[in-house]
Write the structure tokens for this entry.
Amino acid sequence: MEIMDIKSLLNEILQTLNSVDDKNFDNNLIKAKHGMEKMVKLKLSLKKTYPYEELKKYDPELVEITKQIQDSFDNLFTSKKNQFAELGKQIAALRNKSKLVNYYR
């Protein structure tokens, strides 16, 4: 039963991450974090009961879902990093423009 709970929770986390946009970024990341915390508790419970290889054999899809979650996090942070870099370039361009305007006065 616990493996099905983990699978369901991982799918929910993945869906939450895939639906992140600028309007719900903070809320969805908090929701994903809480889901991950729940998942870690379930995982620890399973680790006490079953060896890793047995768990992996039971449902190999779990490994694939966790890789997708990792990719979603990577994509989110790369996207935000690129947005901040672009904003930095725009701010620098505005500063330069302001300096030129002041210079020509």
